[in-house]
Records
---
Amino acid sequence: MAFPQTPSHALPGAFLHTPAIASRLAQQQDPVRRQLFRENSTSGVQVTRFGQDGLDAPTQPAEEQALQNLPPQNLPPQPPLAKAATYVNNALTRDGEYPQLDSYCRQLSSDYDVTVTESPWAPFKTTHMYPIPQNVMEQFNRGQVSTLMGLFADLNHAYITIDNCLYLWDYTHPNPELIGYEDSQHTITAVKLVAPKPNVFNPIITHILVVATVSEMFLLGVASKDAPSGTKTIELYGTRMSLHLKGTDARVIAGSADGRIFFAGHSDNDIYELKYQQEEKWFTSRTEKLNHTYRPWTAAVPTPSQILWGKAADEHILDIIVDDSRKLLYSLSNLSTVRTYHMEAPNKLTKVIEKTKDDFLRDIAHALSIGSPLLNERIRIVSISPISAVEDFKVHLMALTDSGCRLFMSATSAASYMLNSSNQAPQSMQLQSIKFPPTDQRKTRPDRFSASADSINIQSKQLYPSRRGIRFAPGYFLDFVNQEGRFDRLFMSAPDSGRINHGRGTQNLRFYEHGNWIDIGDDSRAEDIGLITKPFAATGQPQGFGNELAVQFDDPNGCEFAILTNKGIHVVRRRRLVDIFALVIRSAAGDEGVKAEVSRFRSLYGHVETITAALAVACRQGDNGRPGIGRGAVDQATQDRAKQVYISFGGNPRLPEQDGQPATVEMVQPSTRHAALTLYLSRLVRSLWKSKVIKTGADASGALTINSAISADKLRDVQGSVESLRSFLDANRSFIQGLSGPADLRRAASKQEELGFQGEHQAMHALETLMTGITEGISFVSTLFDERVTDIFARLDDGSRQHLRDLTYEQLFAQDSGKELAKVLVKAIVNRNIENGSNVETVADALRRKCGSFCSPDDVVIFKAQEQLKRASEPALNPNTSRTLLRESLLLFEKVARSLTQANLEAAIEQYLALRYYAGAIQLCLVVASERDRGNAAPSWVKDGKPVGDPRAKFFDERRVCYGLIHHILHDLDTASSREPEIVDGKPTLIATKRNEAYDVVSNSSDEVFHFDLYEWYIQQGWTDRLLNIESPHVTTFLSRLASKDVEHADLLCRFYTMRARYFDAAKVQAELAQSDFTISIKGRLTLLSKAKTNASVMTTGVSRQEQQLLNHEVTELLEVAHIQDDLLERLKADSRIPPERQPEIQTALDGKIQPLSELFNGYADQAGYYDLCLLIYHVADFRNSTTIAQTWSSLIQQTHENVAEQWSVYNAERRKRGAQAVDPPPQPYEVLVGQIQDICHRSSNDSFIFPVPTLLPEICRYAYENAQDARIAADVNWPVIIFLNLGVSLDIVIRVLESMFEAQEIPFRGAGRVRIIEWITYSVAQLVRGLGRNGRSEARLDPGVGELIAECDNWVSANLRGNNEGGADVRDIARSVKEVRRAVEGLVSPVANRSMGFF
């Protein structure tokens, strides 16, 4: 036994897709396959079953997964509508991937499933037989020379020619009226209905009737109109266009889609064209005959074949057919020669291929490995049929032999291999495939699943002799088999689309066909064949073109054919798969019979297709082929059986293996039942899904016209079918797995089953949601076109108009954008009706009943509010009534604030502004903003610092849209109030009152986010004074939050505090700002710290003195550090030692944030040798290492002297160079040193550690003596003492230090150098005595130590009068001064011993 194809590799863990094991184990439990779900998950529902071991077994998961396109992976959840739309799109895509003809029409085939006419499996069924009317037969009997009969099937008319007369009648009418043409004088030889040339005839002419006689051809205009009964009526019009044949005859006529008319006769094999035009011209008449194939030289010069074989037998044309899709014309001659011509505009016809009978036999010999009695040298080609490029790119033509074999021919062009070639005419034709006749059904039929099923029967003579055949797309084949040379039998077949579609996953597709014989009556001979319905085309391209399953619900009547015989017109209908299914289960014997037939269906067409057919029949589709049965009328028993097939055999959801991943609902693959529901729904709406809703145009006057892209009847049909499907699901909800809800979950035996049921329920619920959207969407479209659509279109903005032009039904049914546009259109409809005086509740209620999702209860409230607004704007109302209506509209808007669209909100605001209802407009915006963020996500997002990428940001953005409208309102209010006075006669004006009301709403709002946004807007507008004058805690919070992020806000906060005498808070903000990371220069930070120190020094209510002192101390320290950093920056910018490339780095580091003292000292001051700044850093850092400080002072003194000395060197060199023109001299070294000492002392606040007098004074004195900083440079020799006295150092400390220096006798104050110390001591003691005298205190006394010191000095200088004191006073003068001071001291020395130095 041959099993279906097994997957190439097993799935991990369980071989779910491998049918071989299950088939061997039969009813036993498969030990390998794991049971993810119970075999019968609906066992808890009391439903009649067709056996418990039925078809609810393994299905084809690959088939369902391909349909649903749901890979077994963890996909993100989708909303129901989006999920359902995905299902439908995937189903439509799969239907559109139906194989093209070339993929299965290859090589050889004799695959038929031929049934008897009475079988429910028969694909064709005669539905009507219209006899030839009696009055036609009476005319027929009067014929003397010849008669012809034919059909105009698409116009439901037939014709008969009797000698020179032509009669037409509506063959569907029981007693038709003959339409006759009896003006011809000659016997009619051919009649053909063709398309007219554009712009030649009156627009009412829809067809041209070409009538050929033995001597002329003439044209009749045919005007076709639709009758109320659904048929067509025609009228004939004369055209005054005729052509004399002049020796030729016309037996075969064909027309192209662009109006060209070709004909041929039995006298030759030439192709002629009847050329016609609207008016005669100078050199051409209205009609003209063109011979496209005759060449004059051929009559005199024989062809090579004629030279070899002699003159051929008389050849003439039997048939001409046109392929408009390829611009090709084919002719068939009586010698079985097929010629191909390429039609080129305007009147050119070029022969490109000629294929003789021998060519056909040669191709057949290559295709067949053994000979066939059906295809030998005795065959004749009796018919040809074109295959359009839309149906297949490769296969061009089907030729039928008299043995019933169909030869499928493909043509190719060399241009197809050349780039940019404009010549697309084929140049060669080859045999593509041979379809042999079916096997004699009376013989034993081979088993469908046996190996012999692959054999090809090349000897069947079931269709011999075929007299005539025709092929209609997508492969409907009608073959008239002549019996005994007198009457015909009709064989009809069609591609078995379901089997071909089911087998497309295999490597080699089989050309399956099913057919049956049609009874056209005994002794009947076929005269003509016609297609009643539109030509079949599932798609506009070869891929998917022949998928009959996809379009079987578009037209329940299917394809119909009219066969004209000498007895009447037989109408044969192609049964759809759903029709066959309905008939099969109706005729089945009992449950077992139904089960067997369903099993057969599934083996042929697949599980999903079978369950889809069952669902369609359960929804009253099918049975349209039964005589006397109306459309969609299925008997209850058949419907019940179909329902049970759908419920019981629908399979179970599956949860694929996850390879260790946790299973989720999104991983569930729904059941076949769901796949069938998806497929059925997609086929119901396929003609709408991708179609646009409207089509625009213009009328005769150029005005815009808008019409429905889909006819109203089609919309009603689809809506009715979807409603029937919804009703079926609702009625059987408790029985259908996935719809029964909690009942399914209670039956779950494991977590996997529970997930499976949940996934199934979600998938089914998604489709139900979509079905609701479809029915309401169609109702909405119907309502839209019940109105004046152009008026509604005119009310839309440009964006909505373009969206409406591009709107598809898919968007309307399943996408938010489409539904939002529908709501805009609903609003336009309601507004139009309101303006026309209609009651808003009446209109809105009507819309709610038809399309509730497009017009919700909230929409009705919105419409009522808009109506109140409209009434309030009427000029006849008094102000009180208008204000009441405005208030009522506001209350209504607030009630549905959450449902208000942005467009509705903006429209309401504009109306409120027009009516100067500012307070209400602001209130509405605030309510809408709050409703859009009911979870207060925006305030928390703002409070958290507005983190980037946070999902809460979208709520903030939605609020800001409403706040933007408030800004617009306030701006409009301020503009209006600025034009009018606020007070008149001591009373506020109306605009002032409205302004106060509006700002009261703003001030009383508790929406902190709104206040923050408003204040930000004030700042953007430059209204900082307005912001600072607001008395609201929100201002403080707003500025406080933003002060740490923005300098301007921090400055505003300081101003806000200062204006309210909150100096301490202002100082804190300024101090924090000075330490912030903002881009603030060091001088700016100095300014901030200075202001902070000032504000911190002012008493503030509510602030303790301790807090104030602490802040003041902190600010002072920061200020000192900032001063040092600023000095460093200025020094380094002017320091020539710094290379230019490092200057930007220093600027960046120091002209910004205040740096730590250690960084300033180690990184800059110490390295650069700025010793004065180092001393200041010691002071600020509270550094007390006396040795380091003393060394720094020494370095400072030495550096200062060297710098000044260098300046003097430069000055002296410049003076020598320029002479008297030299610049001013630099200061003396001691002068610069004095300035530095004073500066350090002041900035260090006389810090005794930074300014150590006992250490510093000897160092200064030593410097002055050793570096001649005395009278030798015109300096006061006592300047070292004077500087300390000027800095507030007491005289007693100075004298003590000098005394220690005098007694120590250290270099350079040893020997003669001691006289300089004596000079300084004398000056200091004299200043002390002079100070006592100025005080006028007679009781003041000096310490005896002072007397002893001055006495010692007097003795030393008296003993060394010959010494030298270079740079100071003369020694003798010093001795004299010492004696004077000694005498003064002796009078002031206290007699009390052990007194400390000083006065008392």
---
Amino acid sequence: MVLKFQEHIVSDLLEDPNGGLVILSSGLSLPKLLSSFLSLHSQSTGSLLLLHSPHLSSALKSLLLSLSPSLPLSEITADLPSSNRLSLYSSNRILLLSPRILIVDLLTQKAQTSLISGLIFLNAHSLSESSTESFIVRIIKAFNKNASVYAFSDKSHSMVSGFAKTERIMKSLFIKRLHLWPRFQVNVSEELERDPPDVVDIRVPMSKYMVGIQKAIVEVMDACLKEMRKTNKVDVEDLTVENGLFKSFDEIVRRQLDPIWHTLGKKTKQLVSDLKTLRKLLDYLVRYDAVSYLKYLDTRRVSESFRSVWIFAESSYKIFDYAKKRVYRFSRSDGTKINKPSKNVSGKKRKLKEGDNNSDAAIAGTSSTSTNTGLVLEEVLEESPKWKVLREVLEEIEEERQKQASSGEPLLDVEEDNNGIVLVACKDERSCMQLEDCINNSPQKVMRDEWQKYLLSKVELREFQRPQKKKHKKTPKGYGILDGIVPVTPAQNAEASSACKQEHEALLAAASEIKRNQAKKEKDAAGEPEPQVSSRGHGKGKGKGKTKKGPSNTRQLKNKDCSKDTEVATDDRPEISVSENEGQRNEINPTIGNGVPKHIDSNNETKTDNIKRLPPVYFHALERDQPVLDVLRPSTIFVYHPDMTFVREIEVYKAENPGKKLKVYFLFYEASTEVQKFEASIRRENGAFESLIRQKSMMMIPVDQDGFCLGLNNSSEFQGSSSQNSITRKAGGRKESEKEMQVIVDMREFMSSLPNVLHLKGMRIIPVTLEVGDYVLSPLICVERKSIQDLFMSFTSGRLYHQVETMVRYYRIPVLLIEFSQDKSFSFQSASDIGDDVTPYNIISKLSLLVLHFPRLRIIWSRSLHATAEIFTSLKSNQDEPDEAKAMRVGVPSEEGFIENDVRAENYNTSAVEFLRRLPGVTDSNYRAIMEGCSANLTAPKPSLKGATTRLPLSPPLPTLHVTKKPNPNITASVSSSSASPSTGQTHWSLDSWKSKRAHQLPEYPDANELDSVLRTIGSFPPIVFAGEARKLEDKLANAALGKAFLLQGGDCAESFKEFNANNIRDTFRVLLQMGIVLTFGAQMPVITVGRMAGQFAKPRSDPFEVKDGVKLPSYRGDNINGDSFDEKSRVPDPQRLIRAYLQSVGTLNLLRAFATGGYAAMQRVSQWNLDFVRNSEQGDRYMELAQRVDEALGFMAAAGLTIDDPQMNTVDFWTSHECLHLPYEQALTREDSTTGLYYDCSAHMLWVGERTRQLDGAHVEFLRGISNPLGIKVSDKMDPTELVKLCEILNPRNKPGRLTIITRMGADSMRVKLPHLIRAVRQAGLIVTWVSDPMHGNTIKVPCGLKTRPFDAIRAELRAFFDVHEQEGSYPGGVHLEMTGQNVTECIGGSKTITFDDLNSRYHTHCDPRLNASQSLELAFAISERLRKRRLKSAKELLTDNRVN
């Protein structure tokens, strides 16, 4: 149903063929308005282009089609061929595409402007004069004035930020009409208020501690604002507490301070950050539970304790003190309470003083944990006041419905289309899941689970704080305030420190009690005396809750009671998540449609008879921004977290369904900032519309004589290049016509605004794909443009060096353009940050070294985009125009293999050069010397290269370039004594002896001759790795088998051709480096880093065929065998893919060698390895804290005169591995080592045999027993101990340490049962192996949407079981084997960022099995590191005890 005011908006837009700008209130159903407008589009006039952000493509398309299924809607993506694009542009349909695609198509004339009838922009508030959208409109309007331009925005407050922003946007889009539709507009208000829903406003009183925290935060925020006003740098009118409640406040302050940011002191900069933190504290106070809030405060305390200003404010200690009181308190074991501060005296001491009998009013904390210090930890666990109110109202709704049903009356609020659904709208997904737990279980259990997780994390957090305490021992004031202790005198301070220590010990004791209860319940699960909620919940530590009374019987509205239950739950997961192993939870949480919220039907609950029945409840996270009202059609709505946009959506929903009985409950905290923020958001929007109305009355939009908008007044800029120049007095009344300037621009540069500004200056933009440079101004001048952020990142990754090197090679005038933002300071760093000494890590030092290395390089500094355009104009004067064809060929080998116009006249065969640079051991620093040693293309380099090569920990020095001769596969070779044993009965082995065995998981190629030809070609190629490297890895793995090292093995599930690029390789390598540092720091032992990289292509399959929609095709087996596209051609095995896999493996390993040895892996760079999307996360903060400690240790070494330039400090050993699956490929790369006579598979340093191919008499085991590489065996819970011992004896008959690594993949429960038997069998046989855990493969599940995922909790649980079993058996946990990536993917659920089932589709990139992202990998590394640290301390303690006894 289309509302009348929406019809009015559409009719107003269609009246003016030039288009218009529509600004309407947030929540007034912009998608429906757009759908109605598009349905009236006439296909006879041309194509209508809908421009949007690329990440919104699929969501927007599905939403529009759901509203109007008959829309002629098509999508243009970057993968679409040019011919298809041309046909779509001329199809007169509605086309969805990104601005970047359209601008390139316009400049390359793939899109004809005459075929475009109009443009639609949905994000008008984010546009500007220099944006790509205005560039597009300017080009189209230059050739097609009749094209309409429509722009929409529902962010009115963003349209009034800045000077005359709306008017400037309208001019840049050539729009002359502005349509304003606020909520208070007559037509809108009349229609929405004609039949309003029944609204119940429930004001829930906050607890006294919540009120105290809120008051303290507001006081601290006001104090920070007063300090900000003293700077006289910001408009005083904007600095109010009310403005500080919104996210836009940070943008307002930064926009005013950015131009002078370099002149500000550290205190002012910190104040800006502090205001953001305080706003979050206010928001989280009313959004999350008490324990989560305290945990967040602890993280802020750790990360900001010594640089934040707000922590030292007068009222800040109250925030921490009251937050603790909401969760726990301490008292003496004799029943006396610890002294607390008076409400009226803020500076009074708050210490754990002996003999003090003052006590607070009890807050019902009776569950306690005694410690040996005389303190008792009392659990308060204050519940959120809204929880009880929500439960009571839901029970009232269900009681009323039951009464109506029993009396035979028709249910007034239940209709056939919705079944009386109740919708609860929360701010975020975490709140939804926690409320779901409260309704499904009980608030007491939810709080106790959170309390458990807090205790365990608290201990871990305190461990990381210890070094900081020592470092800042001289200034204890700040830290004392954070612990809730105000030092007054030295004696009191000493007593306070003692009290803090006692508190810490009490928390440790509570955590220990939890662990003891966990261990006890795991052992006595069968004899559990308490009734079970679900017998299937044991696997995850869930479902052990006791019978409890309903919350209405144990809680008061003002939250003065707490649970009397003293049982400690066993769930120690770090986040709230739904356990997939709970049968009950699965039954009551179905998913409806695409992204519909989770549903709770309490009629399925059978916990106790005292819990009242509840109606069907759905929880919806407002941050998802989905049309949930139209999908669910609820009859009752709870606005749990008030949001203005959602309230408007409810009004529109009711207006569209006037006959529907709708009841809306608002849950506000009384006298809270929640109410203030909601009311302020309405006032802010109304104020924005009032300002827009005033601006509209004073706007001056220039139009021509035909009534078309002229756009921005840029006559002065165009005058120099316009062909219609006015006649002047120069040259006898004539002005010489100037030649049009041309600039060749790389396609990737259209993400910036510079091409738009250059076009605005009258230059012709030619978009092409450039291999060298970003802009080509002339045949001699090439420009590489860098923003400040990109400059720092390019130096860090080494990319800038390579870019400048290629520019210097091909152009006489290479230019590095460093471009600053116009609204920011024209400086790298503030004057206060510039030190006296010059370090090699300083950005100025790096630029100086770059210029010294490349003397012909020119560096240009530009203040803004417009300044860059002026600089380009100056550079192009007296220069020839660039040649598009030549610019595209630069850096690309031609058919003859030579590069034309190379200014250094090197004229090497570029194909041969590129092949040479891919070879192992060849780097950017030595490949030129190798080429100089060649007298001709067909001769080998004869002189020694010892002076040209650098130290490579991954490979030995290369004295000469040669290919080791491959042995004749037809000649049977006897295995040396180290590879076979007479006891096995298998004394003879040859390269092809595996062919006499049964081989599983091998593809069937249609052309055997082609396969043989490819294998012969690969056999003639150089080896990817060398035998000496594999032997070195074997020695290190021997240390891991003895508990003296730890193996970290990780990488992609399966490498792909599509994702092969330097950034992906670098990011995965960087995460492995970070994990290695974390593990080294915790274990205090060497970490062996092995990547599932440079060869991990093939994947085993349980079914050789795959069926989709009735079509049966061969299964996808990896990019080196067939394609993943579900069509017959892609699924046919192609032998040529093996060559591509070889070349990709060589390229990957070469890049890994460069990273490992070129300075990127230096210990001095440990703080620079953080990925951008991990940088601001909890794991990123923990990693940066650890990196700071490493930097301090390195600084101490340098100060003490110890060298830190040792190669071991600047390089890292890195090895590669993959599953030995494709035996013909592995055989082709097997070589006989010239020094030992042993055979090595030179495709990787380490190989493993999988679960599906480890048959004792199978071909894979036969092949592996004859090679001398370190080997791995994947072992599941199906492995028999006797079979494992036999397999070990076959593969390692001489029992050589480091030869065998057993990789277990069982799942947490099976691990505890099966692994001990395997360990004992191996030990009794006297075998030496390295035990490694693969927690990924045993925990793969399939979600309802069809995707595979792995719960992070299950992965952690299996690792915990792995360490527990080895501790129990007295063996060594030797390593971990993970499938992970450095990309920001959402493939495994859980983790500190709480990835849910609904998040999987957002960044699910794997084409095989789900992988951990960088944040989850780091979180896992910290957990393993903590376990290794505890194991190390325990071993040291036992050793010390033994020494004392002796």
